[in-house]
Design brief:
mainly alpha; 6 helices; 81% helix; 0% strand; elongated
Length: 142
């Protein structure tokens, strides 16, 4: 009889705690909402860094904007991407993944900051993981 009540306790604990995949989804969703919004806002203030240093000259030769104006556009896109992740993580995560791919290409064209490009590749994989977790959650709730 003691073994029956002992097996009931873990069942109660597992039903009252959040599943690991849901925790992972929530963590990734939070990070990919907050980080793009904060980085996007910083494109207007340059508190964290002077963002134009990370901009490849090819970017401003294709788009006829000054580097700082280009960064303002980047900031707006990043803020929108973060908001999309907050509202629709299934789609917003793909927007962030594509955006990160663009940043990686920009850094490779620049010919420096390979460490940042590698870090952004890790973030890209995280955004794709959020997408996969969001797709799974959408199927189970539908």
């Amino acid at each position: 009889m003691a073994s029956a009540s002992a097996s009931a306790v873990p069942a109660q604990r597992s039903s009252s705690t959040m599943a690991a995949d849901r925790q992972a989804c929530l963590l990734l969703r939070t990070v990919f909402t907050v980080a793009p919004i904060l980085f996007g806002l910083d494109k207007f203030t340059n508190i964290l860094t002077h963002w134009t240093v990370y901009l490849a000259p090819q970017a401003t030769s294709v788009v006829p904007l000054t580097p700082q104006t280009f960064m303002y556009v980047v900031g707006v896109v990043e803020i929108i991407a973060g908001l999309i992740v907050a509202v629709r993580p299934k789609y917003g995560s793909l927007v962030v993944a594509v955006w990160l791919a663009g940043i990686i290409i920009n850094l490779l064209l620049l010919g420096s900051f390979y460490d940042v490009a590698l870090r952004d590749f890790g973030l890209l994989v995280g955004a794709l993981a959020l997408n996969r977790l969001s797709v799974g959650r959408a199927r189970t709730t539908a």
